[in-house]
Amino acid sequence: MVEQLLRDLHASLTQRKRPEDVARLIQDLYAAQGADLDTATEAAPAKAAEHSLRNLWHGYTSMLEEFARPIDAQRQLARAASRDSPGCGV
Hints:
By secondary structure, this protein is mainly alpha-helical. It has 4 helices and no strands.
């Protein structure tokens, strides 16, 4: 359970997770570890997670949660190289 939560948190670095949902993951991680937190440390993620998707009745967001992945630049580099070649008239 703890390992999966850590994987989810790590994956959130490249995703567009809402802060509320990341805070909920942090709360779940603390709970899975059985962490004994002071009041202020427990209150901060609790306040942030109040409106997490798991706490809402509909449980979804219309915002994309994945960033566009970078594409290979080989095509652009080949095109730039062909413009620099002799005789292309540029």
